[in-house]
Design a protein that fits this description.
The structure is a homotetramer. By secondary structure, chain A is α/β, with parallel strands linked by helices. Helices cover 36% and strands 17% of the residues of chain A. Chain A has 14 helices and 16 strands. In chain A, strand 5 and strand 6 form a beta hairpin. In chain A, helix 6 packs across helix 7. The longest helix of chain A has 25 residues. The first copy, chain A, is globular. The mean pLDDT of chain A is 91. At the B-C interface, helix 2 and helix 12 of B face helix 2 and helix 12 of C.
């Protein structure tokens, strides 16, 4: 994973640029006409002659200067009347705002004839060993990997693997929809998902089982209560509750029920998701176009370390078709690394590689007593 | 399109069945343990010895008997404490509830070797002439075709065709998300969608244009105001406003803005969608998995005519991949007819066939003066 | 896997049926007008009052009665002038030919509302444990599993897994195209496939490497020579050569080179493939539409055991998209079980499960000394 | 469509470069070790101090200097022992061979944040008007557009549209496989394709109809005879025969029959295809991965005009999925413009736009008598 240094702001083009201009928002949730529209790339704003990075970066938002002189990236709907909003269309620093695209988007053109240059293809190899090392490194350094998953993960055997990742400390937060929790809980209570058995058979009367699962949890009052009362005894939601891993269940118009705890207001859901996105040091998006793109919109392309240095935010997007990954990139999440495969198989192999890497590290530690003693 | 007669309820299995049993809901939004879970098929409930169909049928809901003796299909979340809810797991009438599956699901097995038997395939022909006749028939009989569309429709030239259908009386209601309206309004104001020109080029600085479009409408206070003030001058939303075609914009966690008028609460959005779904006499679902499946969940598989007779609800689902159509069917919307193609091309050819059929009918009328005089 | 009993030919409809009629072919490769066109289902022909099954069954062919009274299924192009060809359109036995479809195609209709009833979907679980048991059972009983693979298998890490299966006795024959061998040999000589490294990078000058690999093998005269001379030192083709596993490389118009040993005549290639297809007791089709459908066309839906009994021919079709599997079924290979995933991941997990099952069987044998002694 | 000027060969890097080196081929079909492997880009070879372009450019081949001093691009298999073959790995001119990539591959990197930058996506608009103008321009200037089609074109209504293009002079040559002709002829004789009716129903007994169609043509001896004898009365092959449009039917291992005239040897088929590819001034590849990539391999990325100037070879690739188009590009046909849609719809709209453009040009000519008189 790449790390990046900040631009040299002593260069004349930066030194001579004017300060960014701020204009008060004319009404709650309405921005000044020429507001600056953010990207997910490292962005620097000149205030009082100094170039500074706003906090909580994301795309499709704007930059607000608060009363304490702090810069924030804020969604339009969360800007209040009178808030000071950065204006300008230029991203080259000339209007006091600089978007540092080169570092991340790079320079790919070469005018050379090559095969296999597409960015996303099922024909590209998948480096599970690298992903396993990244995940373990995150756990070791206390990182905050967010997992964003669709219901395909639960329809298949991957439910057990996801549960394992939660139980073993690899999940900072789980962002999903009502359906993931519904299928997971149906599986815990009835052993089916949408009435389909673990071997893929549709069962007679099975079409109502997810509704019965929802009803039991609604009767219990919350997922936490349903776990406490022994209604939910295993699986993804159970693991989140017993291991204290935070989760956000965001509502959609496809939802049955919904389960207690689901955010039915999508603006509130976005705010809840973003509280995790701003902390993310890695993102794993599996088998969901809606939630993956929603999260991608909120994620910066980079992690800001405590010492102010930057590194790419590892973003893995898994889907059965090239289209979802390309769409994510087309919506601006250029840093996403696409894995075109079945979610069930992805989870199974990733877990296998993580287990192998853990064994290898344990063996290496055992072989070097000094290191082990540290 | 098939029509169906009701079962013969004088048959012994129906005559001898007991009345359905109803149990009060234990709390708001919580059903009795053995509640009956509905399908989208014709369903009959025995009350006071008579078999009756509940109103507003849909799947994944339950059946409530109100104080006036009327039967309703209600979503779990809309059932109040004490409401009388039908209970039972059997769908064969023995517990007083009969789901008439045979009429619709038919008997497809034959044990005969054939090619090309898959239900959904890009290799199957598309009968645009039939779809055009259905649409015109609906307009002539005063039907209520609902259109459910995704943003792909707006990214491409299909925007003009959709606008044409709205302007010419072929749209009972439009159900879509924030993005459809955002792209459509960006196209009206800036001539781009997500900063992409009509010829498919990404423009410099274009990534902020959809945010600027949203901001202008938020400043105007509503889409209707923005039309009145000349901010939005053409396109899909403009056509809905000036022709008085109702629309529902349902929120999702991917939404930027959102635009004024978008339902951010998904339960409210579902209620708003369903007010149109219960009136639907035809459904056209184009290029959206989320909204298509959400609407499919709310639609019965049939239309109940004023005289009580039933006919299949024509449901057309258009997507670039077989997967979305198969998924819609896997979620129970078995009546969906799948068209595997590009949304832009679908809209263009459908309009062409509708125009031709209109010309042919006008010519036929002109040739029979008596008919024309009616 | 299902087994099937033969029909009861003492039933009047069979006993009273007339003998099949045979008409001489009018010219080489031309059939009599009303020739019987075969399917891949169990088929019985009444000759001299007795119902018999023709040998080497496949679809899209015809039935020939040879001078020794033996019945054969023969492709049109392989029928000679004067050969006696069965005629008739009926498959119900009335004209002396009976196609036993019920046993295999079954009776699937039930008129019951269910979710998840589609035949092929990425949302269905994949039973690797079952596939692993089937493969090992085939090895134990001396079966003949044919593997049909596309080049995606070689682009990715699955090359090592395929090599493992060959080396460990799980491959009766390998059917593939020129490209599989070319990529595999490029990987052995240069470490790349189409110039792409194992980590997915396109290399400078890499576009010519597959041509250089081909040229080296052409210079050596054959793949076998290239192995003997140490040009090819590992991989799939190397394993076939050193383990004596037969392979067929069928040509296509996409081929570069081709490699020595590739059948450039497609009729000869089909004959070579069929020599393995008639022996197949299991078929695994991975990541190739062309070769999978070609092989599917040649395969009966069943295996005829030595005692004359029938069982379903396990046919597994792996592809990244539902479309290829559906197309295979639409071309008549109804028995295919579809696995919608990435070929690389499929191979890796399948091998893992086979290894586990082997360990489990070894452990079970060790625990039961009597059994081990047998 | 872009045009390109040749490099300035007076520049020192070209003037000072050495002549290309040629080495005799060691055996028939075997190249010298360091042979130069071609691309589809404009390529210049320094011979006798002058930079010249070899004739009949294509990728994955080599450059041969014949006895008359002419340079040819030749496939490995068509090089004879002793032929003088260009050697070298450099493409920058330093070894006497220059590949002019910049002109075509351009410089795409900008380090700027944008949406919708993917090359191939169903969300991109399709400019049918431009394609229609290109096709008519080709007809007017006497160009040679080659059409490469898969069987999906025949399964659906597009058969009539393809027939129209052939009949109206828009097809220089048709390159396809056995299946296209088989389905087309089945449609002419029986009204079905693979037994499926025009409205998509599988017919009883229909699985044998394509075999019966093949048998009739084999009995007639050739497609031409079958047209002459009134067996084939309409459709694509009929149009080719009656309008004298050349066609190549290339064999594959999936072929039934095959029909008379199909090249069963794939090397001969490639040679036959290439005789048209070297004349191509435009390429339209519809619904076929195999034939599209095979043809893409043979096509230069450019057309050499009679005056020696170069222009991009318009290459349109139509498929239902992004994958095929991306794969074509990944195999080096970078100039392909992808249209992600259903083949049936593509053909129908393209024809409509061509008809409109023809009407518009006719009207324009009628309005300018002087021009009409020319």
């Amino acid at each position: 994973m790449s790390t990046f240094s900040h631009p040299d702001f002593t260069a004349p083009r930066f030194a001579e640029a004017r300060d960014a201009r701020f204009v008060p928002a004319p009404a709650d949730g309405v921005l000044p006409q020429d507001f600056f529209s953010t990207t997910n790339l490292p962005t620097y704003v000149k205030v009082g002659g100094a170039w500074r990075m706003p906090r909580e970066p994301r795309m499709d938002a704007t930059i607000v200067l608060d009363d304490r002189g702090e810069l924030w990236v804020r969604e339009m709907r969360n800007v209040g009347k009178g808030d000071r909003v950065a204006v300008g269309h230029s991203e080259d620093g000339s209007e006091g705002i600089f978007v540092y695209g080169d570092a991340f988007l790079g320079d790919s053109a070469e005018g050379e004839f090559k095969f296999m240059t597409s960015e996303v293809s099922r024909e590209k190899p998948i480096d599970y060993a690298l992903m396993a090392r990244l995940l373990i490194d995150e756990r070791e350094r206390g990182g905050y990997p967010i997992w964003v998953t669709g219901p395909a993960l639960v329809h298949s055997r991957a439910r057990a693997d996801m549960t394992w990742f939660i139980g073993n400390g690899f999940v900072g937060a789980l962002l999903a929809g009502n359906a993931v929790a519904v299928h997971d809980i149906e599986a815990s209570i009835f052993g089916t998902t949408l009435g389909m058995t673990g071997s893929g058979e549709a069962t007679s009367g099975g079409h109502g089982l997810h509704m019965r699962a929802i009803n039991q949890v609604r009767a219990a009052g919350s997922i936490e209560n349903a776990v406490a009362q022994g209604i939910i005894t295993d699986g993804i939601m159970h693991a989140c509750v017993v291991h204290g891993v935070p989760y956000v269940l965001s509502g959609s118009i496809r939802d049955d029920g919904p389960l207690p705890g689901v955010y039915t207001d999508v603006a509130e859901a976005q705010d809840a998701m973003r509280r995790h996105a701003v902390k993310a040091t890695m993102a794993i998006l599996v088998a969901t176009a809606l939630h993956a793109i929603a999260t991608g919109n909120m994620l910066p392309a980079f992690v800001t370390e405590e010492d102010g240095s930057l590194r790419e935010l590892p973003t893995i997007c898994v889907d059965s078709s090239e289209f979802v990954v390309s769409k994510l990139k087309d919506r601006g999440t250029h840093q996403a690394f696409g894995v075109v495969t079945n979610a069930q198989d992805f989870m199974h192999i990733l877990r296998l590689y993580v287990e192998r890497e853990l064994d290898a590290r344990a063996a290496a530690r055992a072989a070097t007593p000094a290191a082990a003693a540290r």
